[in-house]
UniProtKB/TrEMBL annotation, chains A, B:
InterPro entries: FAD-bd_oxidored_4_C, FAD-bd_PCMH, FAD-bd_PCMH-like_sf, FAD-bd_PCMH_sub1, FAD-bd_PCMH_sub2, FAD-linked_Oxase-like_C, FAD-oxidored/transferase_4, Oxid_FAD_bind_N. It comes from the Eukaryota. PANTHER family: D-2-HYDROXYGLUTARATE DEHYDROGENASE, MITOCHONDRIAL. GO terms for cellular component: mitochondrion. The keyword Glycoprotein does not apply. GO terms for molecular function: D-lactate dehydrogenase (cytochrome) activity; FAD binding. Keywords: FAD, Flavoprotein, Oxidoreductase. Belongs to the FAD-binding oxidoreductase/transferase type 4 family. Pfam families: FAD-oxidase_C (PF02913), FAD_binding_4 (PF01565). It catalyses: (R)-lactate + 2 Fe(III)-[cytochrome c] = 2 Fe(II)-[cytochrome c] + pyruvate + 2 H(+). This is FAD-binding PCMH-type domain-containing protein. The keyword Chaperone does not apply. Signal peptide: none annotated.
């Protein structure tokens, strides 16, 4: 029986709801709303190559033949569904790997390989390189930009069967795990031993650590534990030609040459296939506190953040914000009560994680009192138990679902210097109002019903969502590339944490200079001269 | 008048002694002992090319002519000593840039350029690349491996005049500074505004932030704030051909393409010249505590570290160790009192930094009491004021000086998985005893008088020092490459934080596979096709 990503994802969804951690459900919720109920037959996902006819198949790449498949069966053995091929398996079994979970992208692969060892990955890639067969490395297939599914008939190489924990140094907290380990499984493994993973995201029950690293996943703990560029200590990778490389050491310090593993963090499978990762894991926190604040202006959101960094410093683990429209939408569509009495233009959710509950309670209470006294905030509440903490997180995490219940959505994951973060939302509203596209008393039938901003203030990460009556070319052209120009003008990034994949590759020029893109191409050529790794993505189409 | 690194270094030395921070003096002490007093004429530093005749000058490189110098004067203007050349300046003025501060390496450059702007750096490098003139980027010239001084007649491009702070985002703590800013100057600039630099090292009064990043400096705050790979957000660099590149954005999150700036962190000037850096700076801590522990075995050092990570977690900012021999040497050569009453085989120094003094006092006191009760440690003391904290740090920081007063030194900066860290010291002692080279009652005239281990447990960073009656070839061959083999067998790193430079390049193979070194060469070729940037270093000699 196949242990497909879908089965694992649904299993996790239930699990995520049952466990006490109030966060890490954003994507699970998204799954449950975007995946139609099992009783209704879902509409077919359109093929990516039909949707984007400009993405012509590269004729240099060979096509998979029965001889190739036989060779791959020799390499992997045909145990535990190591090879899934059109000759033997159903289209549905291949769809699991051809389609992304948002049902936006679909490839036409006829072959999925699920190696168990690094040596198998090496033999597979060596063979593919010799025969110029294009491949797509795939982890849990939970990406948001279409980066891990084929465009044409690229062979999928899945990490799911490479899922052993190789070691944990319990003195320094250094974990070495194979690429196919599920993030949540690793986190549970660590928690039993007093540690935790330094990253956390909604897809944790399905996503693979190899995919997390390949896509430089951000998520909910970045404010506290920093990015993967700091926590990933070393990596085992297989290059396009099958060379197995250890990049770096499972050590905190190593100054012997270029830190090549860093290039693989966020390379989205274009430089090689990550087969194992060593990562520095922090001790788990014994005390977690949550508070919600009501704030009058975005300037005061920033002031509250500045003060939180100073006064909560070492225990601050999340600083999220959302605007009043988000709160209205959540209340309209979901059975959620407003945690604060006063209505405010902006809300802030603060989480602290520390090693001493009494100390953290006191720090957070003092911080809140001072901010109320000094009128930096106009209302605030401290969760007194896990249920209240859960309820506060629930508001923040339900925004995406509430937006999707309001109608069609345009969604942007942007990174902007904090002081200018909300100006993006204001500018978008102003433009749409100018064009008569934003609904108001004077434009009661305009197609854009709401423009909302929320996100991770601590990371300068804005999620800009527009709810609409539906997609039209006119609307699309009113928003893009305008939104990317807004970001570019503020020296921001058009992709804060989701990556480039297929979706954002065409817009890379809004975040990178032509010289930088040229240097990226030189690096790509040095690592993958034949270009067989994850083609058609990451680089701007030419 | 030239504002030379030497003048700045001495000025800083006094400053470092006067200011209250008890750390950050290791290198200053080293300076004062290794630099002879001003009244005595120092012995001349031997030329590197005489010491290592195998380092033959690469005949592809052009030699500096008066026409070249005139062109460079056009580019930089001849203001504020932008150009220091053999035709105009004294040998002593050039020596400042030709010699490293340890007086181990000396180049023969006849030209030092000190540009003021990125555009000047660009014009200089474009010209050098066109004329195949080799260059050495140089910051504060405080490196420990001979990486920032010329070997032959490479042109020195110094960052010292590029020292403007470009911006500080006081909401998120993102600082953008030019490469020539002195680390301590930046730290003071930040402290006045409630932040601090996320790195701290002995050379802080002289070293430049560009050099820190180019050499991936580790230092004293790494345990708390992580490595530069996590804190450096973006970089402005000039490539060998003069192209100015912005690599990354001054943002916490940016997933748009390969993170090329990471390659420059630790590239030691071989890929391009860093001209500005954006770095995430933490809020400064309002409370700092220091404690010293006496421990019976290295196993208990590890247990104390494991417990400190769990119980002090978010406030732990240093966890240093040293062995009994270190304590004996410090007492023998320096006017220092032992902080603890009980003599122990190992000592641990713990520092915490947090936002609430009462909370931190309580956490550290409780932690110490428990460890004493459970007999993980056999003695311990908590500094009750700054003077006591200073005295405790003083023991740890005087080890290098005490070793140098004992005789000739062999020094190794190694990174090893924490559980096996002290085994390196034991193995070295055993080998030298076997060979009759370690002094003891049965070998009273043996040349190695002490083998000591100390360092940053929190980072897995061992400093292994051997004190000897003097350097001999026999002794050298008994130690090297044996010490590197010990490290290699434990999957460690032969350079934890000092880098490769000229000194460690020949031993790179002990930490990197031939495939990884080949991949490094491919990256080098992609960035610097003519190889003009910092030649003769970093890569193993062939």
């Amino acid at each position: 029986m196949l242990r497909t990503p879908l089965v694992r994802r649904l299993a996790n969804s239930a699990h995520a709801l049952a466990r006490p951690t109030p966060r890490a459900r954003t994507l699970s919720v998204a799954f449950s709303t975007s995946r139609p109920a099992a009783s209704k037959a879902p509409a077919a996902v359109p093929f990516t190559s039909d949707k984007f006819p400009e993405l012509v198949r590269d004729s240099r790449f060979g096509s998979v033949t029965p001889e190739h498949v036989a060779r791959f069966r020799d390499i992997t053995g045909d145990v535990d569904a190591a090879v899934i091929s059109a000759g033997t398996n159903t289209a549905q079994e291949l769809d699991v790997y051809n389609e992304d979970w948002m049902r936006k992208y679909k490839g036409r692969t006829t072959l999925v390989l699920r190696p168990k060892t690094t040596q198998e990955v090496s033999a597979i890639l060596r063979y593919c390189n010799e025969h110029t067969l294009a491949v797509v490395p795939q982890g849990g297939n939970t990406g948001l930009v279409g980066g891990s599914v084929p465009v044409h008939d690229e062979i999928v190489i899945s990490t799911v069967r490479m899922n052993a924990v190789r070691s944990l140094d319990e003195v320094s907290g250094i974990l070495t795990a194979e690429a196919g380990c599920v993030l949540e499984v690793l986190d549970l493994h660590l928690r039993e031993r007093g540690f935790c993973m330094p990253l956390d995201l909604g897809a944790k029950g399905s996503c693979n650590i190899g995919g997390n690293v390949a896509s430089n996943a951000g998520g909910l703990r970045l404010l506290r534990y920093g990015s993967l560029h700091g926590t990933v200590l070393s990596m085992e990778v297989v290059l396009a030609d099958g060379t197995i490389m250890e990049l770096g050491k499972p050590l905190r310090k190593d100054n012997t040459g270029y830190d090549l593993k860093q290039l693989f963090i966020g390379s989205e499978g274009t430089l090689g296939m990550i087969t194992a990762v060593s990562i520095l894991t922090p001790p788990k926190s014994s005390a977690v506190n949550v508070a919600m604040l009501g704030v009058k202006s975005f300037a005061e959101v920033q002031e509250a953040f500045r003060r939180a960094r100073l006064e909560l410093g070492e225990i601050l683990s999340a600083f999220e914000f959302f605007d009043r429209t988000c709160m209205d939408l959540v209340k309209r569509h979901l059975p959620i009560r407003e945690p604060l009495e006063t209505k405010s233009p902006f809300y802030v959710l603060i989480e602290t994680s520390g090693s001493n509950k009494d100390h953290d309670d006191e720090k957070l209470a003092t911080f809140l009192e001072r901010l109320l006294e000094e009128e930096v905030v106009q209302d605030g509440a401290l969760a007194s138990d896990t249920a209240q903490a859960h309820a506060m997180w629930n508001v923040r995490e339900s925004i995406t679902e509430a937006c999707s219940k309001e109608g069609g959505n345009f969604k942007y994951d942007l990174s902007v210097p904090v002081p200018q973060l909300y100006a993006i939302v204001d500018a978008m509203r102003a433009r749409l109002a100018d064009l008569g596209l934003l609904r108001s008393d004077s434009a009661p039938t305009a197609p854009v019903t709401n423009v909302v901003g929320f996100g991770h203030i601590g990371d300068g990460n804005l999620h800009l969502n527009l709810t609409t009556t539906g997609w039209t070319r006119e609307l699309n052209d009113a928003i893009e590339p305008f939104v990317y120009e807004l970001v570019q003008a503020r020296n921001g990034s058009i992709s804060a944490e989701h990556g480039l994949g297929l979706m954002k590759a065409p817009y890379l020029e809004y975040s990178k200079s032509p010289e930088a893109i040229e240097l990226m191409r030189r690096v790509k050529a040095a690592f993958d001269p034949k270009g067989i790794l994850n083609p058609y993505k990451y680089f701007p189409r030419q």
